[in-house]
Design goal:
This protein has helices spanning 2-12, 14-48, 51-65, 69-82, 89-114, 118-126, 131-161, 173-184, 187-216. By secondary structure, the chain is an all-alpha fold. Helix 4 packs across helix 5 (89-114) and helix 5 packs across helix 7 (131-161).
Length: 220
């Protein structure tokens, strides 16, 4: 009987749950995209930038990675309002997660590029390739294959970190689930169902990463 009562409540709350899921997916996707783009530039600066620039970027990474995500979320929302940007909860959440993502992706890209033997760069120079040609055709494809699995883990972390955005009023999946539980008191059932939805989203990211890995793998 409890199971059928849960199904009844789940059906009643279906649109609320779908709305929360769509917000979670949207925020996570935007944070992953913007954070990855920024992270690539951060990784390039760490690898090829001048010493003063590398020092500044290294400080950025160490500060962001050493700061709890919840603090970044609160800072993005309240500090931005204090300085006049007045970001809404959704935009502030995307900004906080993108900043966090960029610091991790930057280190991932740096590690992938520095793992490539220097001899390959020297060989590319010897045959007359410019740096941009060397990077696009020699360095980047190899680095991508190396850091792709770690990037997938970072993307999954962004989905899990999105649960913290409820503290600034973002109506993502966890907050919507809590609202539903406050009405029907089915805590265990709805938290389990929310966890299942988070698993599905992260599993889809993992499958996408595997697909890209196969597409970029060197034929044997």
């Amino acid at each position: 009987m409890d199971f059928f009562a849960f199904l009844e409540q789940l059906w009643i709350a279906r649109f609320v749950i779908l709305n929360g899921l769509s917000v979670t997916v949207s925020i996570s996707l935007l944070a992953i995209v913007f954070g990855s783009i920024a992270g690539v530039f951060v990784g390039l600066v760490l690898t090829y930038g001048s010493l003063p620039l590398r020092f500044v970027v290294r400080g950025y990474i160490d500060i962001v990675r050493g700061t709890p995500v919840l603090v970044l979320v609160l800072a993005s929302y309240y500090v931005s309002s204090a300085v006049g940007f007045d970001l809404g909860p959704f935009a502030a959440g995307v900004l906080a997660l993108a900043i966090f993502c960029s610091s991790h992706v930057g280190e991932i890209v740096r590690g992938g590029l520095q793992a490539i033997p220097i001899g390959q760069t020297e060989a590319a120079k010897a045959i007359g390739l410019t740096f941009s040609q060397t990077f696009a055709n020699v360095l980047w494809p190899q680095a991508l294959r190396q850091f792709l699995p770690t990037w997938v883990n970072t993307a999954a972390e962004m989905v899990k970190a999105s649960t913290l955005l409820s503290v600034i009023g973002v109506a993502e999946l966890l907050l919507r689930t809590q609202e539903i539980i406050s009405r029907n008191f089915m805590s265990l059932q709805f938290y389990f169902f929310a966890g299942l939805l988070y698993f599905v989203v992260n599993f889809a990211i993992e499958r996408f990463g595997k697909y890209v890995e196969r597409k970029t793998a060197v034929p044997t």
